[in-house]
Design brief:
CATH class of the largest domain: Alpha Beta
Bound molecules: S-adenosylmethionine
Strand content: 25-35%
Distance between the termini: 48 Å
Largest sheet: 7 strands, mixed
Shape: globular
Order of helices and strands: EEEEEHEHEHEEHEHHEE
Number of domains: 2
CATH topology of the largest domain: Rossmann fold
Number of helices: 6
Length: 225
């Protein structure tokens, strides 16, 4: 690779390389989901695919608040096999990502990944029952939710209240079709937004994830107090 990787918008650990987003691979030589690898001056970068990761899609679509840093503690709901968690793991090098996932099939791969990436803590649990993992998770700087469930806003708010530090940030990847496939997604986004506001959250930004994801909106939130 010829071009020097540039930091994206001063976001810690997020690079812009040859027109792609990328993160600095903390486990050189190991890919996670078949992503492309680029090398520059002995450093390895994993290309971050916005069609595989909604966080990458949100960044490319203009995310302004990037709350992650090297030491962040993150609670991640709906971690699946670890595609997005693996990029967060590159960014949050000295922090921790508590990864909640209720599918045993996904969890098997996540456990394998956590054996290579020690900042990923896999938790086989249901995000609708946060009291089940209250004893396993500390207060976090960032709550990230991507569960694609009808109750996704409720799950997000309950976990925020239990686990997020007062000054923390929440990122909800809202999938309209998981709430109602027959209704106009814009109406659903508006309803869910009022639900979040009524519960006392301040919405810092809303980002439509088109063209990478259809009928998805990212909400970046904090406590309104
Ligand atoms: C859209 S996928 C997540 C993709 C992942 N966030 C990524 O970007 O790599 C949604 C995941 O949420 C999980 N999920 C759905 N409902 C859940 C719940 N109540 N508790 C825990 N995990 C849940 C599903 O099993 C699925 O793996």
């Amino acid at each position: 690779m010829e071009q020097e990787p540039q930091l994206w918008n001063n976001f810690t650990g997020v690079y812009h390389i040859d027109n792609h987003l990328a993160t600095n691979n903390i486990i050189p030589g190991q890919k996670v989901y078949g992503e492309q690898i680029k090398e520059y001056q002995g450093m390895e970068y994993r290309i971050w695919n916005p069609r595989r990761s909604k966080l990458a899609a949100a960044i490319l679509n203009g995310l302004k608040t990037f709350p992650f840093n090297e030491n962040s503690k993150v609670l991640y709901l709906g971690a699946s096999t670890g595609t997005t968690p693996s990029h967060i793991s590159d960014i949050v090098k000295k922090g921790l990502i508590y990864c909640v996932e209720f599918s045993p099939r996904m969890m098997r791969k996540l456990v394998d990944l956590s054996q290579i990436r020690s900042n990923l803590i896999p938790i086989l649990e249901d995000a609708t029952k946060p009291f089940n993992y209250l004893h396993l998770v500390e207060k976090v700087d960032i709550l990230y939710a991507d569960v694609a469930q009808p109750q996704q806003s409720k799950i997000f708010m309950e976990n925020m209240r239990l686990f997020l530090k007062e000054e923390g940030k929440g990122i909800l990847m809202l999938k309209a079709r998981s709430i109602d496939v027959t209704r106009n997604p814009d109406e659903i986004f508006q309803e869910e937004e009022s639900r979040l506001k009524t519960a006392g959250l301040r919405i810092l930004q809303k980002i439509d994830l088109k063209p990478y994801e259809k009928d998805h909106m990212a909400f970046v939130c904090e406590f309104g107090f």
